[in-house]
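Encode chain A's predicted structure.
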Amino acid sequence: MKRTGDALLKKHSKTIVEISRFIDDCIDRKLIDWALRTTEIKNEFRKMRRSIFAKAVAELPEEINHFSVRQYGFIRLFGNSEMAQNVLAGKGVRLNQGEMASLETFSDYRCFYSFFTVEQEFGMDFFAIYDHFSGDEYILYSPGLTRILLNHYQTFLFLIIDTGDICVTYGDLMAFKSLEIEDIFYFTKKLISESADIEHLSQEVDLYPMYYKTLYYISEVPGIISRGFGQYYCMDSYHLKKWKPDGGLTKNFILEKNQGLWYGKLKGREGETPHFASFYYDEQDEMLYLSALTEFGYEKLVKVVSKFLEIDGEPEWLISMSVYALVHEHIGAEDKYKEYSQLFNEKKRDSESELLESINNALEEIQDLKNNGKTFDIHKIAKKYNISEEEVREIIKASDSFLKTKTKTKINPIKGGFLGFVPPPPSVRTLFDRALFEENFLYYNRSLKIDLQIEAIIKKESRMVEDAGFAVDHEFAVIIQGILDRNSPFNPVDTLYILNYSIYLLLKHGRNFEKSTDYAKEILKIFGHFLLDPKIEEAENDFLEKYCKFFIPILERFNIVIRDVKKGSNNPLNDCIKGSDFLFEWIELQSDY
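Encoded structure for chain A:
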């Protein structure tokens, strides 16, 4: 028998009315406000806003943030029935007898976020919807969805209440006009784990809905068309043993080899813009990677490669450019394609590095002149370093921003530090204002050993991690940054510089024990002009004390440093530190630094 909207409404109208009334009269007016006011829900939500997507979340429209915090309160209240049971047990807000009965029924419903598409409309306001994460189908009643469908949206993110027979929505519906579900799968894989099973990830949306709501920024972005071809990241990989290029490949590809890695660019227009059809073969990993920036280019690539190798015609990933950019800007995830491509751009990098070196040298001279209260001539500096006067003006602007000078009072030179240590050039220093997990001069190693060590550290410091609002599956660098944001004796901006330069110093110089104060002094030599307030006589000593007494112990707790406490001394300023074995196994400096 064909289901119709009238039949469904007749069958489920009582349930729909009861849920709607309970949401309006009890949940919206009593329970959510109580939960946000008297529990940790609002703080959890704020912590999520301060995490890796802080910038993107902060820029979301106010109405999205307003509805989202209430949705988050709802999912925490009913997604895990413990809080609702506390209300039933009289530990929360007071409800009358009818409301208590409704709450008891409501607590048995399943409430969750997911991504859906509409498969069929049974009648006004009733739909068959498909959950892309679980693969389940539901019957949904949603007048709000009826209105949105007039704009022909395809993919939706919303929170549903599943009674077992019928589903209704709670809160705002977010529609993604230009995104395919594959874009969202890719986003999820990079956000959570490369090895994660999509079908078991719907609970992640419940925990971190604001991360997914940042897709709002690109939901209306039209596809990019270049020379008549839609642009997407088309990517796939294959395990391939003992591969060597033969005559067929050399005929069709421009081949290069660098450090055990083969690069092949398809000859002709398919290898150039906008297609960039190419492959990489890693001899050590025995992996072949195919990529192109248009479907047309990928089809041509597969057509040629399939003459020599057995490969599928469809790419594993076909990702919109806007999603790819969002992932790499905010998550910092890197693909092999991007890592490998850097090895084959030496000539371009040589000319760029010469210009960069000139700019860095000019920046260093300008900073030195400013620090010593001297004037400088833009024309002379431009001529001396063979750069334009406009570039010099940009350097001056960057210098003004970088120095963050609080006063024109001169800071006394810092004495002490590491004997013979050469501070990093300005090109490296400018990287120290970024979050640890966003740094592009550090390389993070992953292995079973590292993962077990990280797991042990988090387990040991579980209370500290839990208090900061982090789940154990967060990247360790994110956790460290979050703990420091909450516990550092310095303000968050200064903490970034201090943490990053401390890591840099440990990796460069930290194999042997050195005085903690020497690390602090090396930091002040570079950043003292904005870390120290010249109006305070004991500013340097105050910094040394905070660094040694409060900052270093946090790094020690997370096994970044090992501290050697001087016998007979209760003063941390007399202690020595070095980098831990874990640090050197986990983090390396990129070769350029």
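The first helix runs from residue 5 to 38.
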